[in-house]
Design a protein that fits this description.
Layout lengths: L1 H7 L6 H22 L1 E5 L9 E5 L6 H8 L6 E4 L10 H9 L2 E2 L7 H14 L3 E5 L17 H9 L3 E7 L9 E6 L11 H19 L10 H8 L15
Parallel strand pairs: 1-7, 2-5, 2-6, 3-4, 3-5
Antiparallel strand pairs: 6-7
Helix pairs in contact: 2-3, 6-7
C-alpha cells in the first residue's frame, strides 16, 4: 500500500514552479487546440465566482485540453483522475503529474482517502475541479452515459456548486473542426451528502448535461491521420470504439 500511495504523489516543488508549470501547460493546450481545431465557448457568463466542480461530458482523450483552452485560468483548474496506480507510466500521465493538475485515484483503494483530502485542499483554497462524470469516454455526440456519484458527493461535502459542461465535436478529431464547449447554469449543492441527496443532485446534473448535448450530430470518421490522432490515446473499456447507439 505504501508503494502505491507514493506513486500517486506529485513531486514536491516550489509553489512558483507549480504555477509556472500550470501556466505553461495551459498555454500549450490553447496553442495546440487553436492550431488544429476551432473552439467556441458558450455560456462563460454563467460561471460562478469561487470554487466550483465542473462535470463534463467525455468523448475523447483531448477533452481536458479543450477544458484548459476554454475555461478561465482562474480559478486554477484541476482534474479528478485518471484511475491510475502509477502516474509515472505513459506520456500523458507524466505530463499531467509534472504540471500538478490531477488528483489520481484507484476506486475501492485506501488511496481514495488521500484523493478526498486533495479535493478538499483544491476547493477550500478556491480552485476548480473538473470531473468526467460518466467515468469513461463514449462515442455518440448526443449521448450521455449515467453519471457516477463522485461530483455530487464532493459538491455536497464541500458546499460548492456543480457546473455542467458539454464538449461536442471531439468524437473524431478532424483538422479545422468546430468544437463547442457549452457551459450550463450552476447547480447549487447544500446539506449533508446523504444517499438521497447525492442521488437527487446526480440526477439533476445528468438532466442538465444531457440537455446541453442533446441533438448534436455525429460526424463521419476523418482521414487516416485524424483517425489515428483520435484513437491513439483513447482508452475504450470495450477494447475498441463501440458502435454509436450500441
Amino acid at each position: 500500500m505504501a508503494e502505491s500511495t507514493a506513486a500517486y504523489r506529485h513531486p514536491r516543488v516550489d509553489a512558483r514552479v507549480r504555477v509556472g508549470r500550470y501556466l505553461f501547460v495551459s498555454g500549450l493546450a490553447r496553442l495546440v487546440t487553436g492550431v488544429y481545431l476551432r473552439l467556441r465557448v458558450e455560456g462563460r457568463e454563467r460561471l460562478p465566482p469561487g470554487p466550483v466542480i465542473y462535470c463534463f461530458s467525455h468523448l475523447n482523450w483531448t477533452d481536458p485540453l479543450i477544458l484548459m483552452s476554454g475555461l478561465p485560468l482562474r480559478p486554477r483548474l484541476y482534474f479528478f483522475g485518471p484511475k491510475e496506480r502509477d502516474m509515472r507510466l505513459g506520456f500523458r500521465n507524466r505530463v499531467m503529474a509534472w504540471a500538478g493538475t490531477t488528483i489520481p485515484y484507484m476506486p475501492g483503494n485506501d488511496d481514495m482517502l488521500d484523493a478526498a483530502r486533495r479535493v478538499r485542499s483544491v476547493l477550500t483554497t478556491g480552485g476548480a475541479l473538473a470531473i468526467a462524470g460518466e467515468g469513461r469516454i463514449h462515442a455518440g455526440e448526443s449521448e450521455l452515459l449515467p453519471l457516477e456519484e463522485g461530483p455530487a458527493y464532493f459538491a455536497l461535502r464541500f458546499g460548492v456548486p456543480i457546473v455542467p459542461v458539454a464538449i461536442n465535436g471531439t468524437s473524431w478529431l478532424k483538422f479545422g473542426r468546430r468544437v463547442s464547449l457549452r457551459i450550463g447554469d450552476p447547480i447549487p449543492a447544500s446539506g449533508r451528502p446523504s444517499r438521497e441527496a447525492i442521488a437527487a443532485l446526480t440526477a439533476s446534473t445528468w438532466t442538465a448535461l444531457h440537455d446541453l448535448v442533446a441533438g448534436h450530430p455525429d460526424y463521419p470518421p476523418p482521414g487516416p491521420f485524424g483517425r489515428w490522432l483520435t484513437e491513439h490515446f483513447n482508452d475504450w473499456p470495450e477494447g475498441s470504439r463501440p458502435r454509436v447507439g450500441g
